[in-house]
Write a structure and sequence with these properties.
This protein is of the alpha+beta class. The protein contains nine helices and 13 strands. Strands 2-6-7-12-11-10-9-8 form an eight-stranded mixed beta sheet, sandwiched between helices. It has a three-stranded antiparallel beta sheet with strand order 3-5-4, with no helix packed on it. The longest helix has 22 residues, at 124-145. The structure holds aspartic acid and magnesium ion.
């Protein structure tokens, strides 16, 4: 088993990287608050969390006889919060713990930060437009405020143009085979969308096309792969129950969330989660995600500090 060294950075470029991170986070807050979204604080302990689309080891603690999971993503709380509040939308910079089983990876951390966004009653296309504008704003701001840092890091940034190109997951599967995401990410020059993935129960199934989903991933070019995952959401009790069962998951694992759905307290929304470390890796053009964090938690290695 590997031990992660500390600090983990080949070329002494931390100060430039964290300056880029500071400007990117500032741009994110300015943009989203400017669009009328409100910021909420994260939750990290809850009896419920995202079941995710792939299996990871469970991370939980027991307190006062209650089993509490560490947040894998804030999706369920986001849906509850945006339904309860009188607002256009919410955003949260949220710590996520995902004890990944991958052997080695240049883009996974066991603990990372996610920008979670959820828009009330929005369509996928409204959300995608907001995200395109957000990414253009972040990249433009970082280019304008971090020219020296980017030069030292040898990072060249292109400002993408709207609308971003869109592919469906099934057309890419047909063209490139099962590793389509990494293949197409290498061949595109600008950020692009992949839509219609069969995944978690909360992403909305297309009522007009059985077996299709109103969801999306935003993908970086130059081989940097996934930036954001999200979708329109299902929120009606009987739909959620059916989809949880279809996935072989237990209704009990989502009991308090399903109670709210049954009481009609979830409403339509669309949103997504953007990995912050992956964004900074893309902006600073680092090859490995552990280069942009001082305390990397790398899958399948010993954590030293
Ligand atoms: N499912 C996303 C995630 O992987 C979050 C979202 O859909 O908003 O974290
Ligand atoms: Mg994802």
């Amino acid at each position: 088993m590997k031990t992660t060294t500390h600090p983990q950075n080949g070329n002494g470029s931390y100060s430039q990287i964290f300056r880029v991170q500071t400007e990117a986070l500032r741009a994110m807050h300015d943009f989203l608050s400017g669009r009328g979204l409100i910021q909420l604080m994260p939750v990290i302990l809850s009896p419920i969390t995202d079941p995710l689309n792939h299996s990871v080891d469970d991370a939980y603690i027991t307190y006062n006889g209650q089993k509490l999971q560490l947040t894998k993503s804030m999706i369920l709380h986001k849906q509850i919060a945006v339904s309860a509040l009188d607002t256009r939308g919410i955003y949260i910079v949220s710590p996520n713990v995902r004890l990944e089983r991958v052997q080695s990876s240049d883009r996974h951390l066991l603990e990372f930060s996610q920008l979670d966004i959820e828009l009330k009653t929005a369509t996928a296309s409204e959300f995608m437009t907001l995200i395109e504008d957000l990414m253009i704003y972040i990249i433009s701001q970082v280019k304008a405020t971090c020219a020296d840092e980017l030069e030292k890091l040898n990072a060249t940034l292109r400002i993408p143009r709207r609308p971003f190109r869109t592919h469906t997951s099934w057309s890419l599967l047909e063209e490139y085979g099962p590793h389509y995401e990494s293949e197409i990410s290498r061949s595109e020059d600008d950020l692009f969308w992949i839509t219609d993935f069969q995944r978690e129960f909360y992403d909305r199934e297309d009522p007009e096309h059985h077996g299709h989903y109103v969801n999306y991933d935003l993908v970086y070019p130059e081989g940097y792969q996934e930036a954001l995952s999200g979708g329109e959401r299902d929120y009606e009790y009987y739909v959620l129950v059916r989809k949880i069962r279809e996935r072989g998951q237990k209704l009990d694992d989502f009991a308090p969330y399903l109670e709210l759905a049954r009481a009609g307290m979830l409403g339509p929304s669309a949103g997504g989660g953007l990995g912050i470390e992956r964004l900074i890796r893309f902006l600073t053009k680092r090859s490995n995600i552990c280069e942009i964090t001082l305390f990397p938690r790398i899958p399948n290695s010993i954590i030293k500090i």
